[in-house]
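Class prep. Sample record?

___
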Amino acid sequence: MPTAGRAASPVPVRRFRFRFPIGDRTARRRVPKGQLEAEELSLPLQNNPPYNAGAFRFELVFSPHYPLVPPRVTLLTSIHHPGVGPDGTVCQPITSPESWEPATHTTHVLQDLLLLLDNPSTERVLRPELARELSERPEAFLHQAEEHTRRHAEPRPDTPGP
């Protein structure tokens, strides 16, 4: 049933919200009730500062034309990172329309996202001022990123032992 101000889509857009701690061993996929069963997705993540002190929410949106059109990844938690825009846009070439391959698995998109977030660099940049800070004053960048993580990230969930 369409809501006021929204046009009904002939094919529903699938939206997934994820919450994962960078540096944790697991990432849990949360799926809105009534769309699909909730599943758990495990990915090998590292435990690198400055983002390992918190959990970050992100949204993975699939177009009705998926897999011909890439999914869109948006970080919902504020992060001090050169590869993530202030609006949560992620610099992820694997999901750009020019580079997208329909055979790309969602797991590859998530692994690429986690690699980007866990290893800030000056190569995949949406915020040049942060890339410049990372390049010219790496200690100051790491300190700012840790402080930003403490202020804005969610507490890390308890994870099951090995």
User: Anything to note?
Assistant: The chain has three helices and five strands. Residues 14-152 form a domain with the Ubiquitin Conjugating Enzyme fold (CATH 3.10.110.10).
